[in-house]
Design brief:
By secondary structure, this protein is mainly alpha-helical. About 45% of the residues lie in helices and about 0% in strands. The longest helix has 24 residues, at about 5-30. It is found in: Mitochondrion membrane.
Length: about 55
């Protein structure tokens, strides 16, 4: 049962995480956000309690 042997799978996982951390992630971080958050004032919504018919 080769799937019980963790040696090749651990190496594949380690290699994929290293490639993501060292190659892909820095390229993704350099992208600028096109939808920057704005400084809008928070709107306060007035809530009213729900009136249950059986109380």
């Amino acid at each position: 049962m080769p799937q019980l042997n963790p040696t090749p799978w651990f190496f594949i996982m380690l290699l994929s995480w290293l490639s993501f951390s060292l190659l892909i992630q820095p390229k993704l971080i350099t992208f600028t956000c096109t939808n920057l958050p704005s400084n809008k004032a928070k709107t306060i919504t007035k809530t009213s309690p729900w009136t249950w018919p059986w109380t």
